[in-house]
């Protein structure tokens, strides 16, 4: 995509990783002009973020790519522990609950990050968007009306807002002067590589514990939909990883029963040092941080890519409401309000899992993430049960039956959804493009009443009657246009 003639856009997105691509898809379906610039000449080639949690699958369902994701990926393999070249038995890293009426996706799926990005890019192009590869932001200024970015192509781009989705070493974050606070999770570096090993079976996630407890670990995981494995190998502190083909071969031969020549290809390799760090703020004027630019973490628990995609999902509808529907600009303040605490919780969870202090389970599936107590969570009902499990404003809206389909079918798309559940209370006349209304019988996961579901699938407002503040809430969020 050439940039020579591009002079302005609604949103400039810096970085074509999962965060930037998901945000671009969400904005495109809202008819918000967005430009994604990526300094690399191609999509990221590695498997790095390979686990997709159930909540992210729900996001991908809404974005129209879940079928492609499920077809390309596969289940998380059962672990197989090896010692001395002998199989010691299977190891299950987490429980696998069955799908339910309220949650159609309950177990993580395996898909290498490069494939997830390919699917997102294909969807973006279907929606009329694209990525400017080989293009870097070399300078950025902002004023009361927008941002001005100098690009490495020589072009100057004007945008209403910009989003830094350029990874943990974000250039844009540093230019904004936003610092990150955190800790080293583990001083030992980790080598990660995508390798081909035809001699190894693809039915298990192969684990090779160190000869002594506390020593460096090695794991080789088959990557669904490919002929490759992801190799992860912890190295002694102070070691400089050898990322070459021969270096990877020698490591595999030293750590496993496999011979060096059994590694026939290294498709991609890298190294990292597990660290947990959180940006001090997620916004500076008209520029937002999202994904790894806002939070870096240990990969344990498979939370990072998922949290990053959900950053984009939270920010996308808010930018759309401000730019397309006249919502107050203050709505954008709720992005940091909602996402920064969730990112902090994710960092803590990932660190505890890395250190063996917590197990992968309900929390890592991310279906319990919500925004209770936030300024966009308004619950006007009285006499609610004291149980914390009862649905409240700010919670994820459960799936369930709705007419001939499901509630998720009703939610799918960039609109709001007003549910009248088990009630015949009078409803206001609303713009049917912005707010879809559905009346269904009483449904236990919700109870009875009116529930306004945000475009990102969370209950924003709940009440017994529309007079409990429904229209004021919609006006605040740019969804009140009356027909």
Automatic annotation (TrEMBL):
Gene3D superfamilies recorded: 3.30.70.2450, 3.40.30.120, FAD/NAD(P)-binding domain
Co-factor requirement: FAD
Transmembrane segments: none
Domain of life: Bacteria
FAD-binding domain residues: 8-347
Key words, A-Z: FAD, Flavoprotein
Pfam family, one: FAD_binding_3
Protein name: FAD-dependent oxidoreductase
